[in-house]
TrEMBL record:
Coiled coil: none
Protein's recorded name: Thioredoxin family protein
InterPro entries found in the cross-reference section: AhpC/TSA (IPR000866), PRX-like1 (IPR047262), Thioredoxin-like_sf (IPR036249), Thioredoxin_domain (IPR013766)
Organism the protein comes from: Arcicella aquatica
Domain Thioredoxin residue range list: 39-192
Signal peptide coordinates: none
Transmembrane spans: none
Length: 217
């Protein structure tokens, strides 16, 4: 009996240690652990064709003059996404003319939140004056391919020939609540490095936001 109790205690303590190790996994290691759920750095990203709020179908290949894209998975209802609206617009204003326009994609099942319906996407795009394409991932296949789990999440892809390779995954910057208190601009830094012909050093950060609402879940 004493041996049985001792074994139970040992298993319990090992569980606590393992949980602690996972809780403090560095960002790059966390990305390795989740790599099987979507694209990882250096992967070739498959093109997609999604419906824009303008009514047009949009794909990455439509714009042949780009150097790459800033792809942001965002939505209407999430307070984190709302907090980043102006910052996403600023990214497009800054980098579209330099060859890295924004493509915004709503990954959510609209039946979970009416605010995320296509009609409401159109309303928001018009009201905010989006200068970038705001796309609906109706089947959620593109979002699953990227491995998106939260909104907003940013992905920077570089065009190489007729392919698009993933260069950055993660948050837009380091302060969700206050744009004026941002000290690290992850997407800015990634695109600036690529424009300068340098590799992206900090190529993975953790996204903070609302969980994606998947169909049938």
């Amino acid at each position: 009996m004493k041996t049985h109790i001792k074994n139970i205690k040992t298993i319990f303590l090992l569980g606590i240690v393992l949980t602690g190790l996972l809780a403090f996994t560095p960002a790059n290691e966390e990305h390795k652990l989740s790599a099987d759920r979507g694209y990882t750095i250096g992967d070739v990203v498959a093109d997609f064709k999604l419906k824009s709020t303008t009514g047009n179908m949009v794909s990455m290949a439509d714009n042949r003059s780009v150097k790459g894209y800033i792809i942001v998975f965002t939505c209407n209802h999430c307070p984190f996404s709302k907090a980043y609206e102006s910052r996403i617009m600023a990214l497009d204003k800054k980098f579209a003319s330099q060859g890295y326009p924004v493509l915004a994609i709503n990954p959510n099942d609209p039946s979970a939140y009416e605010e995320d319906s296509f009609e409401n996407m159109q309303t928001v795009a018009r009201a905010k004056g989006y200068t970038f394409a705001y796309l609906q991932d109706e089947t959620q296949a593109t979002s699953k391919a990227f491995g998106v789990s939260r909104t907003p999440s940013a992905y920077v892809v570089k065009k190489e020939g007729d392919k698009y390779t993933l260069q950055y995954i993660g948050g837009i910057d380091d302060n969700t609540q206050d744009a004026n208190a941002v000290t690290k601009r992850y997407v800015d830094d990634a695109v600036n490095n690529l424009l300068a012909g340098r590799p992206v050093v900090n190529n993975f950060t953790k996204s903070v936001g609302c969980a994606v609402k998947w169909k049938g879940v």
